[in-house]
Amino acid sequence: MKRSPILLLPVLLAGCAWLAPTYHRPQMPMPDKWGTAQTAATPDDSTWWRSYGDPVLDGLVDEALKNNDDLALAGAKLQQARAQYKYAFANQLPSISVAGADAYGRVHLKDELPTPHRMSNLGFVGGMLNYEVDLWGKNASLSKAAKAGVRAAGYGHAAARLSIAAATAKLYFSLRALDSERDILQRTIQTQTELLALVQRQHEVGAVDALAVQNVTEQLDAAQAALPDVEDQRGKAESALAVMLGRAPQQIIEQAMERGKNIDELTIPIPTPPEIPSTLLERRPDIAMHEQTLIASNFNIGFARAAYFPTISLASLAGVNNIDIDNLYRATTRSWTLAASMAAPVLDFGRTASGVKLAKAEKNEQVILYKQSIRTAFREVHDALLEQNNAHEREQGDGGKKTAAEKTVELTQLRLKHGYSSRLDVLSAQVIEQQAELAHTTALLGSLDASVDMYRAIGGGFRLTAHEKGKRE
Predict the structure, then answer these.
(1) What sections of the protein cross the membrane (predicted)?
(2) Helix extents (H) in 285-350
(3) Using CA atoms, how far apart are residues 271 and 281, in angstroms rounded to an integer?
(4) Is the pTM above the cut of 0.85?
């Protein structure tokens, strides 16, 4: 059976974006290595938050990735992008519709024909086919731009997942640090109260002067003043975490946040950037998102340029006619028509030229945003490396001070047992130990936050597949 060439036009012309510029990825000079940092093979970090060894944290992150509002918005944008692509793709294909008409009236035929001159129904039922011949790739450019928009929305959703997981982890670590600080402050207040009572008794017998009493009083006041601030920060951290998890208002107000391991019991991983710096472009979903947006803007130029050329449309109508609508399906009169129309721009007062300039300007904007996302990514990795190294050194230093203070308390209590130290010496050593604990807690939080920042900076858990890499070229 010989097919009409008209029926093959959608297949031959669909997907041909003739007027869109050839896409070339903007090039930027990449470093050969990460400065003096030592990099190693990064383990599988698809669920990087599990490396901290806290099942409660794992559950909270999973809950956030399921219920968070920002992630739901990113998912809605992805659905919109998919619907827009399906709409743009369908515009490349013919549309088929059913047409029908019915009119009541009298048909006057020649007198010699044996047809009565009576009132009759004039009916038509048929099908209509419309197709815009996409010679210049206007609809194809729009479809390809929408397809890139789907990919951009997908990468945006991945970037939102990474950001939400990181924010949840950092809020949880802050909450556990504040829990520890509250406990330490409560013990400090108790120790300082005992110490003040002891110093006051010594002052009463003339063993110490008033300055010693004043110093201990000021230390107690400072600890008591710090406790309400910590309690306030704890409450705000809990509510912020509940909102991050997407919990209901009643849960935000009434439900206490779950706790897992203490902050000094958490494992602190040391994530490393990829061995080859340029690999970062394939590990950051935000960079992939900006590139797909750039690709979409490239096809939008082709769509805008197509307005310079004529629009050619084909229309076909086929059906059956009958004077008597009651006998329509037994009609002997059949008809079909094929029509073509063309509309070519002659004078639009610069409307098309302005559209092309606008599309080019939007592409230039996306080039800048794409390059900016790369610079931001490398800055974040660089800063995360510095933060991680400094936090690790600070944690080790404060950890050493805490261990030394604990040893001092132990030795002082031993001396007290044998009569070589006083209760005042023990209490003073405990105050120093508690101050060291506070500093170490702050250092632990810094190390935990630094590791989260590194995971986020290297695009933890996100990698382009080989198929996706091909789409970006």
Answers:
(1) none
(2) 285-305
(3) 17
(4) no
- Find tokens 């008591």 and name the residue: 224
The pLDDT of residue 366: 94
User: Which residues neighbour 137 within 8 Å (Cβ) at sequence distance 6 or greater?
Assistant: 16, 17, 18, 19, 20, 302, 306
The pair phi, psi for residue 22, each rounded to 5°, is: -65, 130
Secondary structure of residue 98 in the 3-state scheme? strand
User: What's the CA gap between 165 and 160, in Å, rounded?
Assistant: 8
Q: Whole-angstrom Cα distance, residue 337 to residue 314?
A: 11
How many CA atoms are closer than 13 Å to the CA of 325, on its beta-carbon side? 13
Tell which residue, 264, 354, 273, has the closest CA to residue 307: 354
- What pLDDT shows up at residue 7? 46
* Residue 307 to residue 159: CA distance in whole angstroms: 36
Q: How many CB atoms lie within 10 A of CB 12?
A: 11
CA gap 134, 90 in Å, rounded: 13
Question: Which phi and psi (to 5°) does residue 129 adopt?
Answer: -120, 130
Distances (CA, A) of 125 to 94, 99, 101, 131, 336: 20, 6, 7, 20, 11
Q: What is the pLDDT of residue 1?
A: 44
Rounded Cα distance, 201 and 178, in Å: 34
List, run by run, the mean pLDDT of 10-residue segments along the chain (473 residues): 48 63 88 69 74 95 94 93 88 79 63 56 72 82 92 94 95 95 92 86 80 85 91 93 91 87 92 85 91 93 85 72 52 65 77 90 94 94 92 88 86 78 81 90 94 92 67 55
Residue 194: burial class (beta carbons within 10 Å; 0-12, 13-18, 19+): middle
Q: Which amino acid is at 373?
A: S
State the Cα–Cα distance between residues 79 and 153, nearest whole angstrom: 9
In sequence order, the β-bridge partners of residue 241 are: none
**What is the rounded CA–CA span in Å between residue 438 and residue 405?**
12
Structure tokens at 366: 């996306």
DSSP 250: H
CA angle 267, 273, 276 (to 5 degrees): 155
- Residue 161: what pLDDT? 94
Tokens of 420: 């070589």
Strand, coil or helix: 310: coil
Is-contact 91 145, C-beta < 8 A?
no
Decide: 119 and 105 in contact? Cβ < 8 Å.
yes
Cβ atoms of 241 and 60 within 8 Å: the answer is: yes
End-to-end CA distance of the chain: 41
Q: Is the dihedral of CA 360, 363, 367, 369 positive or negative?
A: positive
pLDDT value of position 90: 84
